[in-house]
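Reviewers of the previous submission asked for a worked example of the structure-prediction workflow described in the proposal, so we include one complete record here. The input consisted solely of the amino acid sequence. No template or homolog information was supplied to the procedure at any stage.
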Amino acid sequence: MRLDSVLISDAVDQACVQLLRDNGIRVTLKTKMPLPELLEEIKKHDGLIVRSDTKVTRQVLDNAPKLKVIGRAGTGVDNIDLEAATARGILVMNTPGGNSISACELTCALISSLARHVSPASSALKKGSWERKNYAGTELYGKTLAVLGLGRIGREVAVRMQAFGMKTIGYDPIISAQAAREFNVEKMELEQIWPLADYITVHTPLIPQTRNLINFEVLNKCKKGVYIINVARGGIVDEEGLLRSLESGQCGGAALDVFTEEPPKSEGLIRLLEHPRVLATPHLGASTAEAQQRVAVEIAEQFVALTKGEALFGVVNCPALTTAVQASTKPWVDLAKALGSFGPSSDCTVTVQTFGPGLERLSGHLGPAVLAGMLASQTANLINAPTLAKEANLTVRSEHLHGEQQQGLQVNFSNGRCVRGSVVEGVPSLLAVDDARFGDKGVELGGNLLMLDGVTDLAQVVHSVAAKGVRISRLATAHAGRGCVAVHTDARVDGAVAGGRLLGQLTF
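From that input alone, the workflow returned the following structure tokens.
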């Protein structure tokens, strides 16, 4: 992917700017722009890097005709309209591991601070009050810590709090019990966790399934005096329910770094922050010098990798692209797009079959490419093709056929058409259309390709194309089939061609 100009609209470490420029990418750094200025500026760029201040809304995307990629220098993408970006074929990336250590360390600090009442004791002492008895705490040793979300941050928290002698239990719908045991966490279901936990810390994304995951009803199932820690996303903990539980004494205390409203302004949220058993910080999870530099460098590295066709990480809205840009894989993706071009643009079920040694790893990644080829008239790409396909009533399934010796790809359309291809000497090539076969090397899928069938007079085809002022560069006739012919031309051919039926005219 070519990136000529990248806009950085939030403050990032200078290392990000320098790395992009060192790799030939022009950078514009403008922060704290009012919305009208952002709407004008974004029109000029094909890349955008943000942190959390810039809200990349549908309105912003509507004013970004050149935009190809958005990079979030951080983990969450709450400030980016992911659905709108995906529908427009804009790639969204983040830096999933860049601030893991910083967020983990803040979580551990808050757990310890809750146990020993560090903040209120310090505040009281600064006001001249020496109240040792009022701020007697509890040891963490022997207590049970529940970690909800066993990804990078959750694992790091568990390992560090084990050093305090805490027993660690956890929940994650993706991580297996065996994988959790490898870092000494006993995986449980949520209903098993509630009555056992002395401390509960959340490390999940904010999605419909996790919104208000910790609420008043859940807290009533927990031990009396349970502590809640949230350094993940505002909204995972139901703030109103938490306040009610604190006021009743069911919840012993809470440490919050994130909120549904940032900065907090609503009356209910202010009441929660002012509660004496609440320790609050202003979204500091990633606010360390090391994390800021790390996420800045990581997002710049991802942009550079994108331009160089290297392996990607942190892709949020297009898993297939993680492998599609690699030099060894790209010809197969191009082949899948080309074969998809032979199919209808709506109301079709597609079966994508890989075959031959080494291609099984790609079987699940080529479906979006085939869809992109079918929807080429709608300027579809790997990112937005699955979304556009739903609207066009296109469905795709993928499988790998074992036993074949030659590597290749076959696409079966429910309208009866079947196309088969391979990568021959690094070039995507068409091997067969239905029962018409083009030999071992096939037909190169590149340039302007005119496909005809029912050809009985090849000379008539040649004369008809030439009469339109179009030059034929190559021509291949198929074995078997119904007189299928592939004609490479130096320009597209307008109108009917005498001597055969138009099967399709493709431009690659």
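The mean pLDDT is 92. We consider this example representative of the routine output the project will generate in years two and three.
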